[in-house]
Amino acid sequence: xxxxxxxxxxxxxxxxxxxxxxxxxxxxxxxxxxxxxxxxxxxxxxxxxxxxxxxxxxxxxxxxxxxxxxxxxxxxxxxxxxxxxxxxxxxxxxxxxxxxxxxxxxxxxxxxxxxxxxxxxxxxxxxxxxxxxxxxxxxxxxxxxxxxxxxxxxxxxxxxxxxxxxxxxxxxxxxxxxxxxxxxxxxxxxxxxxxxxxxxxxxxxxxxxxxxxxxxxxxxxxxxxxxxxxxxxxxxxxxxxxxxxxxxxxxxxxxxxx
Length: 258
Description:
It is a single chain. By secondary structure, the chain is α/β, with parallel strands linked by helices. It has two domains: 162 residues, Alpha/beta knot (3-Layer(aba) Sandwich); 74 residues, Helicase, Ruva Protein, domain 3 (Orthogonal Bundle). Helix content is 49%, strand content 12%. The protein contains ten helices and seven strands. It has a seven-stranded parallel beta sheet with strand order 3-2-1-6-4-7-5. The longest helix is centred in the C-terminal third of the chain and has 31 residues. It is elongated. The chain starts with 6 loop residues before the first strand and ends in a 5-residue tail after the last helix. The mean pLDDT is 87.
């Protein structure tokens, strides 16, 4: 299924090499093959291979990245996984409802599914780099899945959704979103601009920026929209730092502002 070729499964700081191998096997079971590891801990290729069984080709193609931003740089839609609740995780969608939407948007976008480490999952810092969140409904008494289990469940739902992609109710993206790296750079510019005008506190800008990131992530940011947002950030910072007097003089003289 061509749609599945658009998906990369990103394991952030996995703790168990066995889980990496089991994740590779799960991807091959479901027709996926792009596995990415971010700063794996004590990674042992032999232990991973013993769990991959007949999916060693997926494991051998897996790429290792030093940080999450590098692993996501070529992606245009980044989806984080979470089983936790919190102020920045309230909009996580159930996997079964989200999978058809992601398959539809993969027609024009390169999608990353990000999984956190086995011991504590994705922190808010990693969640901030995700455009959307999904969750796997489980029994409330023990909601946390093993990493490889979570990978196989997500991969399975995507495979099912890809098989049903011809259905009339599967939404298709209108166009490609901006790359994750470019969107991340825009968020940094916007945070700097909002700090410059005093809207964000310099000592803790991330608090409100996480909400802003979530707002922008709902619909995705397209290249033209990214240009506009970058322009706003640059102009706000210019006015805050030394441009206010220039603007006042232009207005007083009747000259055009741009």
